[in-house]
Amino acid sequence: MTDALVRSECPDLKLVTRGKVRDLYEIDDEHLLFVATDRISAFDVVMANGIPGKGKILAQLSLFWFDLLHDACPNHLVTGDMAQMPASVRPYADQLEGRSMLVRRLEILPVEAIVRGYLTGSGWKEYTRKGTVCDIPLPAGLEESAKLGAPLYTPSTKAVQGEHDENIHPDKAAEILGSERAGEVERLALSLYATARDYAAERGILIADTKFEFGVNTAGEVVLADEVLTPDSSRFWPADRYAVGRGQDSFDKQYVRDYLESIAFDKTHAVELPGDVVARTRDKYVEAFRLLTGRDPSL
Known about the structure:
With 299 residues, this protein is an alpha+beta fold. The chain has 7 helices and 16 strands. The chain folds into 2 domains: 14-106, Phosphorylase Kinase, domain 1; 108-267 and 283-293, ATP-grasp fold, B domain (D-amino Acid Aminotransferase, Chain A, domain 1, 2-Layer Sandwich). It has helices spanning 54-68, 93-96, 121-130, 170-177, 179-201, 254-262, 275-293; strands at 14-18, 22-26, 31-36, 41-42, 45-46, 77-79, 100-104, 107-108, 111-118, 132-133, 136-137, 147-153, 156-157, 205-216, 222-225, 234-238. A hairpin with a 3-residue loop joins strand 1 (14-18) and strand 2. Helix 1 (54-68) packs parallel to helix 7 (275-293) and helix 4 (170-177) packs across helix 5 (179-201). The longest helix has 23 residues, at 179-201. The chain is globular.
């Protein structure tokens, strides 16, 4: 297993920010460079060590989905091919190959578009307390991991690094975005989820939930942005092991979350993940990539 790239170093590029996973560089007035590092976060805390190759899997899977979903919604991607990158980027190919995307600048909307197809995670916890998810009433008597009658749009606010996103009712999203734009985001998120859900199901993966991010371009169009349908932004479950009434096996970073819960993680301070957790998590990401794309990631 190769070393993890937890921090890109491109001194001749203008660094805009380092997020939980991605390093973001400014290329010019119209373009940005997204670099998916091997950092991994859980409970909004970035761990002390990374998962080798994880960033490449995330970037390549996003490229796959952007292509597959292009007809359903425009996206911000220009290229993920290093040979087509600007001259200022190519000197850093050894670091950036396979983990970078050149994208168009957008005005990013301040609401994350979460779609849930199954009752799990924070949605299940709220349901057990109140019978609702994001204050949306659901039928009584549902069990953990139950498939919802229809996918549920449950937006959230976008927290700064180190703080927690807050689930909100769609009406609150409409207050933030305006009713027309909020309605368009909801429509696009549900449509993208349905397309991806059906595609993945044919390949043995249930997409329990996922998070989309949208921005607005200079023409005023809503555009799909950031990463899309990766193990970091989604819960992927193996269909052949799915059973209602319990937590599910997962292809995503749920393995990391479960480990942290087992050590009474304080959800505040970074910890170093042990080697077996790193290896298991990497294997999960690789397996999901293979099932969805039919090929191995370029690591």
